[in-house]
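Handout, section B. The chain below has 298 residues.
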Amino acid sequence: MPHATSLPPDLHQWVIRHITGMESTAVTDASWPRGDSRVWRVRSDHREVFVKLYPTTEKYEREVKGCQHATRALAAVEAPRLLASDPQRPAVVLSALPGRVVRGLPLEQTEEQRVHRLAGDLLRRWHDTPEPIGDREHQRIMASVTAQAEEAAVVLERLNDELWPAERALVRDAARDLPDLARALPLAYRHGDYSPRNWLWDQPAGHHSVIDFEESAPGLAVEDLVWLCGAAWPTRPDLRDAFLTGYGRLLSTTEQRALVLLTARLGVSYLSTGLTKNDTVLIERGRTVVQHMVRAPR
């Protein structure tokens, strides 16, 4: 269902009240092609901002907290700044950043490696900026990992005949080992969706930046690498090397094993959902991820 290319009148009035110089604007729908994404790029003669509406209060609160974390962790050109927020709508106004979304950009190999190295450097600084993680939050993190392990066990039973022996063994390892591994892993404030669709590359200036914090929360630091591990690194080890160079360290043996098992869990989840919904895209994605993880070092 397409979204409106103009701001709802009450939302526009709210923006005008909080952001000077936005009375006369040009509005572009900047939503992701999914039902719950409502984002507008708003330009005036004086400035450009993004306005976001959230489907849940939780996503709004995570975006706000993520913006606050980004302000402490990153430079102003590396992450949007929170200009206005309203928990009742719930909505935010964010500063615009230069650059284009990295996903789908036609980059030469050397430039793509540079982007991934800068992405690793940015994520390390994001992870190294501390946020308090109390007992309750720690329990939530461990419960989340346990739930992922339990899902792997359920999916393994459901898909037993769909998997090769090595794939079944990998998923069995995920179901058995993830909770214990998690107790030995570094915690951090995660971005939550750290992938090229949320990276911006300003080619003339050579600047990399990150957007979209509505999945940010405390968790296992290595969880921010799951998408890269499953989708980018298996066929592009040069990008893995570039990213980890930027990150400033190699993964420990425990982190590497946990990363492979977390990624395999995601892959079989894709596969299970795809088979249930007869979604060939998810089926192919799930099979590919699991096959890659079988061959990954762990």
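Note. The chain has nine helices and ten strands. Compare this with the example in section A.
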